[in-house]
Amino acid sequence: MRKFYLLFLLCVTGVVNAQDWTLKTTTDSMTDATTREAVLTLPTGESFAVMRRSDNSVWGYYRPATGQLFAAGDHLLVRVDKSKPVEFSDKFEQLSQRLGKKVEMWDWNPTLIATRIWHGNPSEGCGLIQQLINGQQMVIRNHPNESTYRDVTFPLSGDKKALVEALDFDVANCPPPRS
Fold first, then answer.
1. Architecture of 2-169 per CATH?
2. How far apart are CA 43 and CA 47, in angstroms?
3. pTM of the entire structure?
4. φ and ψ at 3, to 5 degrees?
């Protein structure tokens, strides 16, 4: 009986840890434009969503658990599996604005960080999107204040059909990832 109980716990833990992407479709009440987003939500309340924008770029939206806030000037580090971590912040947007042509890449408020995570052109490489589709785990790090950081792990081993559908995307169109 004890072995059965341990086996049961291992099976249940595996099911709880696997996260499926959820497809959310909304229609704008003024323009009737339809938006699709794929969302991962953890039992602890954190969520990560991806959505393709009208310029074909893909944005990621990270929301911490209820009651947690982002510090002003915070940035995100994102790592899928053992890939090199990618930093997302407002630095490029500020630089492009100083050079005279602001490129929108970042949006911050105390309860949500949104950032452009992919340009949207598979022939130029698929980067983080390809990693999300092929990966098993994503870690997002933010800094609630200057002296600490918070890592949140999203299991990616669940069903990714909603992710592919939300982005209207086929990973087969991507060139092989660069080493």
1. Sandwich (2.60)
2. 9
3. 0.83
4. -65, -40
